[in-house]
Structures are given as C-alpha cells and as structure tokens.
Amino acid sequence: MVDARGLTVEQDTALRKQLRDAGVDYKVYKNTMMHFAIQGTEFEGLDEYLAGPSAFAFSYEDATAGASILNKVAKDVKELEFKVGVVEGVVYDAEGMKKIADIPSREVLLSKLLGSFKSPRVLFRTRYRSDRKERRSSGIILERKPHKQRRCA
After folding, report:
1. CA–CA distance, 36 with 32 (Å, rounded to integer)
2. Per-residue pLDDT tens for 4-40?
3. How far apart (Å, rounded) are the C-alpha atoms in residues 153 and 139?
4. Nearest partner of 16 among 59, 63, 57, 61, judged by Cα
5. What's residue 14's pLDDT?
6. If we measure between CA atoms, which residue out of 99, 3, 4 comes closest to residue 49?
7. What is the tens place of the pLDDT at every residue in 55-68?
8. Most buried residue, 21, 51, 67, 152, by most Cβ within 10 Å?
9. What is the pLDDT of residues 66-123, one digit of tens each?
10. What CA–CA distances, in Å, run from 6 to 16, 36, 73, 109?
11. Distance, CA of 87 to CA of 46 (rounded, Å)
12. What pLDDT does 116 receive?
C-alpha cells in the first residue's frame, strides 16, 4: 500500500506500465471499501493505515515484484511513499517493505543457489585444466608411478 499523492500523470502511467508488465495489479480503492473488504482476512492489519489516498499493488506470483518496482520508482519520484504491506500474511511497515523490495526475485535467488552448487566443481576443473596446460607448455613431464596392488591376507 502506497501514498501516490503528487505523482504526475506521466509518472503514474509509467509506474502502472512497469507493474502491469511484472504481473502486478495496481489500483486505487476507497478506504471505507477496503476497511470492509479486509475484515476477517490476513490483511486486517492494514486497517490502521487506511487514512488518506492509498494505492494498492497486488502481486500473485512473486512476493517481492511489486515492492521492488515501487521502491525503484520511489527513489526517483519522492512523492511516492510506502505506507505498509503484507507479504505471506505478515504486516510490514514502510521500512520493512523497503527491505523486502531489496530482496531479489525467486528466479534470481534460485539461479544463484544452483550456480553456487556448480561453481566449486567448475572452479576445480578449470584450475586442473590450466595446471595441465602450464605443465605441458613448460616441458614438465610427470611420470606415473605404477599402482601397487594389495593382497588380502
């Protein structure tokens, strides 16, 4: 939930386009209508923040998508301010929403995780190959020692 007072038509249109492209619904509702709509839901914590004009951004797939776009635009447009937000049923104040906005998307986090699983092997293989190339180019020849067979007694 943001306070969007003071945005120009061009700024608001650009914001709506960015949010729409990310699959985020952005709408302005009457506070009295929202008061009745959130009663008995996980959004009931928003009730105390329903004062003044409020715009709502609903993200259904990526929990941080709307917050990150709003935060990015708010850095350029000082009139746009976070009021409060709900992520996974937890109510966050304006500062909490700014921190959530800095969290990368789920896809980015998964790719970083998978990359970290792969990187030690790739790093080892790269070092091993470069060491072999250096030994070949410098003329160092390593002799293999015959493998001793052990006999079981």
Report:
1. 7
2. 888 899 999 999 999 999 999 999 989 999 999 999 9
3. 43
4. 57
5. 93
6. 3
7. 999 988 888 888 89
8. 67
9. 889 999 998 888 888 889 988 888 888 988 888 888 888 778 888 888 777 666 655 5
10. 15, 27, 13, 35
11. 12
12. 72
**Cα-atom radius of gyration of the chain, to the nearest Å?**
27
**How far, in Å, CA of 91 to CA of 149, rounded?**
67
CA dihedral 112, 113, 117, 122 (to 10 degrees): 0
Residue type, 48: E
DSSP of 59-121, one letter per residue? ESS-TTHHHHHHHHHHHH-TT-EE-EEEETTEEEEHHHHHHHHTSPPHHHHHHHHHHHHHHHH
> Is 46 within 8 Å of 91 (Cβ atoms)?
yes
pTM over 0.85: no
Work out the end-to-end distance of the chain between its first and last CA atoms, rounded to an integer number of angstroms: 77
